[in-house]
Protein 1
Amino acid sequence: MTQRMTYPFAAIVGQEKMKLALTLNLINPTLSGVLIRGEKGTAKSTAVRALAEILPEIEVVRSCPFQLSLNSERDVCRECARVECRERILKGEPVETLKRKIRVIELPVGATEDRVVGTLDLEHALKMGEKRIEPGLLAAAHRGILYVDEVNLLDDHVVDVLLDSAAMGINTIEREGVSFSHPARFTLVGTMNPEEGELRPQLLDRFGLCVHIESLQDPEQRVAIMERRAAFDEDPESFCRQWEGASAQLVREIENAIQLYPRVTVDRSLFFEIAAYCLDVGVDGHRGDIIILKTAKTIAAFNSRTEVIREDIDTAAELALPHRMRRQPLQDIVMDVKSVRRNRNQG
């Protein structure tokens, strides 16, 4: 069976903010994900799947439903009573591992809480007298990407669970008096069409970054989209080979940024600049300040720098503040943060 080719991330035309927001979240998962707002047919799902395809492989314990690495969270396997490696771990014997691509786990709109979080296998508990956890989508998404299309149509409670796990990096299953936790560190990507309704402000605030994308209006870019897509459909392998160099370069930049991020410093004067940004545009709470700081450091690392500059703060604010600014009832999310700040200061 021929393997299905994935459209290269580097070949996507335009939508630079979306591509930057996705890349930054992969460098620094503590940014708490990205919400992509915009109409259909603007390469949202294409970008997510393509980015996962070019990332380095990860090492996982074979047959582990929690995507665990060999050197971390072994206690999860001891509690699970389901993984094939359990007996080996308890005896201190070697455990078989394998390397595979980072996965994109898609969450269907109609997903129930049990499907997302996981549940207790009651039949096994009754027959064998021991607990066994049936992992949910959050377990499958650990160390990967959780993609939620039309996130605004999900049940609010399910969205709360997703955002809590994304923020804390842990998922807890509590059923029939049994409590079980496992790692759930993933890059959360939500997409939505604003015409179908907005998320509640409390939920919007939980997404680290937010971008709004539209159909490209430049004829040259629209023609480039058609040409590239036609070439990909006609000969996917040849088309992907043409973009191998650009894809490999992006991988190197991401890997370098991950290594560089812990060494990035921020001058204290820029902390005041971040605070002024949030106060000037009317942001409630302090999550926006913290996300801008993390985003600016990630941008600096992505640009191979160990010191944040003013331009990093500006770019970070454009990604971290649009969905956090105070708005009038029925007012749409304002995406031009710098203009809002300038107008309010002039006023």
Protein 2
Amino acid sequence: MKAEPAAQARLLDLQELDTALQRLDHRLRSLPEIVEAARLKERVDAIDAELITAQTRASDIERHQRKAEADVDQVRSRADRDTKRLESGQITNAKELQNLQSEIASLGRRQAELEEVVLEVMEEAESVNTDVTRLTGEREEAVAKFTEVTARRDTAAAEIQWDRTRVTQDRERVSADIPADLLALYDKLRSQYDGVAAAPLRYGRCNGCKLALSTVELNEIRATAADEVVRCEDCRRILVRTEESGLNAPVAE
């Protein structure tokens, strides 16, 4: 492949811009706020699950408490009616009086048992409601932190994106100076070699793989026409000849 030396030199400018884009993409992926936001989101989700469980339990206990209090009211009302009958003096039959007194005593024991249940349920409700209050506060705090971190993440990402847009525009301008076939080769190699497709030949060394070229390789490049596109024999990247390539004087074999 042939290309004017100036066009080959532009590959180094293009490579520098593509490397800058890689760094920006790495910065974007590596923002600490991304990891922190993900951690906080997991925390909020975990609290939400606990809170739903606690709220459901509180609702169940509330229904249980209402049922237990209704049972107490029912027994108390019945005991009050029986007590009034007993105190009214309308019942004179000894057997009936005995049965009524026995029922009142039984209702008293039942009321005491139900009131004990109500107290236990109230204690349980207090404990669960404390959990609900605690979890609600923790959720509000976690959500506030998540909101703050995501705002910082979005701001940092926007700044990186602005830099990326600027570099991309520069890349488009540089790409326009490079022949289509050379640009196609460059893009193909870039996808194969970790984003680095073109490197300067500097002081007899490929700046892509950092290996020094042999005397034979340097002499072959020296004998190659300036418009001939050369490749590193080791890493196969495009080698761009510059004033620092070390090709000015012949090298003895």
Protein 3
Amino acid sequence: MARSKKVGAEQPLMPTPTGLLDVDGAAAWFGVSRAKLFELMHEEGFPVIIIPKNNIRFDPNSLYRWALEKQVNGRYVA
């Protein structure tokens, strides 16, 4: 029988994913809910690409840079 992963086990840092992410992918990448992601989208400078016909996409590299800019000594600064 295969071992299951422990819930809450710390994952190693992964390189920034390639390609554009949809809302679910960006929320999973950040480790937040969709609702929290939509809250973050209202912050000034949040990198979002809105394509006509209600398509929202995110560039992972821009998300990564934005997240790094928001961190000060390992703490999130709103």
